[in-house]
Amino acid sequence: MDLQNSEREPHQDHEQHSAKADTPQLMRTIFGIFMVLVYVGMGILLFMNFFDWAGNFAWVRYVMGSLFVVYGFWRGYRQAKGIG
Q1: What is the pLDDT averaged over residues 7-27?
Q2: Which of 12, 13, 57, 69 is in the most buried spot, having the most CB atoms within 10 Å?
Q3: Mean pLDDT, to the nearest integer, of 14-19?
Q4: Burial environment of residue 12 by CB neighbours within 10 A (0 to 12, 13 to 18, 19 or more)
């Protein structure tokens, strides 16, 4: 027997609403951590010359690697503080 929304008990609606509200927050947290790992990992790979950039592009590797690592730490800090 189906209950209409007006006949449901208030705590049932609250439990369903809070479960739905927690899922996007959880996904944002998981995605945020994943992106921190991607940015820091990409910076480390550039420092190690994983992509075999030869010639006069060494300075680009170091600049881009530094930017990726710094931005990854910045995103990690913001993730930990709950900013954004």
Answers
A1: 66
A2: 69
A3: 59
A4: exposed
Residues 6+ apart with CB under 8 A from 24: none
In the numeric block, the tokens 């449901």 are attached to 8
N residues, the chain: 84
- State the Rg of the chain over Cα: 22
Residue whose structure tokens are 């209950």: 3
The pTM of this model reads: 0.71
Neighbours of 39 (CB within 10 A): 20
Distance CA 76, CA 72 (A): 6
User: Maximum CA pair distance of the chain?
Assistant: 74
Q: Map tokens 């927050």 to a residue.
A: 25
Query: How many Å apart are CA 38 and CA 44, to the nearest integer?
Result: 10
